[in-house]
Amino acid sequence: MDETETVSNNKKTSQATKNGQEKGKASDELKRKKAVRRNSQGAKENLHKCVQKTNLPKRKREPLQSTRNISDHYPKKKHAVTKQEEFYSMSHSPLGYCLIINNYNFGSTSLGNRKGTEKDKDDLTRVFKKKPFKVEVRDDLQAKDIRNVIKEFAERDHSQMDAFVCCVLSHGEKGSVLGIDGNQVPICELTQPFAECHTLACKPKLFFIQACQGSEAQQGVWMADGHESTTEEGTFEEDSHTAAFQSIPKSADFLIGIASVEHCRSYRHVKNGSIFIQELCKQLEDGCPRNKDINSILTKVNRAVSTQIFQRFKQMPEVRYTLTKTLVLPMKQVS
């Protein structure tokens, strides 16, 4: 091959290479333009969507709230408490038995007869009949008779009744009440049989005890610019030594109200009855028609008794309870 032919072939090869490069550049340029067009179209579509979104009505912005009150915006579920859960049912008539143990005659002992106790018995009978309870009175019981009557009432059928009340009017010693023979009956022996009574389960069992809790006379205290008691003292007696109720039963639904705090005396007027029982009757008659609960009533009893003076001394009743609901005793309307 001569030199001329070689040069000619080289030129052809160079020209082909150049043409191929130009074609490649053209192809790349075409691809670039297509990509630009696609991107441009996508941008237009996105812009259109953004415009559509901006045309939506604006949501009203809520004012910022303190996180301290966040629970106000997201209230917790509350358990609906029904009246049945809050209050003891008092729908039967009679509501229940009311046992009154009234010991007056202690003539066979060194203890004096309990003058004025008849007034307490009559007033308690009147008040609890209005509730209405079926009132039964037992007079002048020896210790063994007190135990027997307590057992009798605890073994009765209370299924068609809503409550039980026991009032004990007697002398006493620490932790006990006394039979007219001077023998002791521990307070726990009055209450425990009713804790084991199945037909009184979940029903209120109320005990009101008129007796001292000790031989100490409760002294008054000076009050700065306080109200002065104007109670006429009259003739008062003490209900023996003590009748401290050591503790209420472990079972629920008990209430025990006693005339005086532990170690101290309680007083009874020889004609008008005991201070505690008389004030209890008064507050029950006043509060029950106005649907006052028993705790509120007994708080008023405490206040009224504690502000008076008896033989230059004071008296402070005490109430203990394991009630699990609010107790409102209805008062029967008297025509």
UniProtKB/TrEMBL annotation:
It is found in: Cytoplasm; Nucleus. Keywords: Apoptosis, Cytoplasm, Hydrolase, Nucleus, Phosphoprotein, Protease, Repeat, Thiol protease, Zymogen. Residues 1-19 have a biased composition (Polar residues). Residues 20-31 have a biased composition (Basic and acidic residues). Residues 94-216 form the Caspase family p20 domain. One of its GO terms (molecular function) is cysteine-type endopeptidase activity. Residues 244-331 form the Caspase family p10 domain. Its EC number is 3.4.22.61. Belongs to the peptidase C14A family. This is Caspase-8. It comes from Ctenopharyngodon idella (Grass carp).
